[in-house]
Specification:
The protein has 159 residues and is an alpha+beta fold. It has one domain: Aminopeptidase, CATH 3.40.630. The chain is built from three helices and seven strands; from the N terminus they run βαβββαβαββ. It has a seven-stranded mixed sheet with strand order 1-2-3-4-5-7-6, with helices on both faces. Strand 3 and strand 4 form a beta hairpin. 24% of the residues are buried.
Length: 159
Amino acid sequence: MQIEIFKVPFDKKHVLQNMLELYLYEMSGEIDDKLELNDDGLYGDPWLEYYWKEAERYPYLLTIDGKYAGFSLIREIEPKTFYVAEFFVIRKYRKNGVGMTLIKEMFRLHKGKWLINTAINNTTAQSFWRKVAKSASCGNYKEYSIEDGRRLEWSFNNK
């Protein structure tokens, strides 16, 4: 299995946009019941454009054997403080270490403090992000509730 992770050039924005629809569909109902389709029948993401307009936003795509397999949207919310805005691996490639490979590449590219959060009822994501936080920080991470208990967040440094 050949894995490639690369920053998304503007001419491939549509690929990320299409994959983001899959991600948002997966999040709707089960995890975020506030998501609604727009007049075009899409979820859309008003923030996606900013990943090519603002220097502190980083869009990445993941391919496996040349096929699109996932993405990661990273924001630098303060100098050397990074936030996983969105993270997605298509089902076909989950449970075989691909997600861990993708996030480890994000950590290699961006050193500093990290913040990662997920919905309180997304237990699958919670399990994954706990493993990530433990591995990336050698067990030195914090886990706490945010948004009135609706989300869990992990923070750690990977310097």
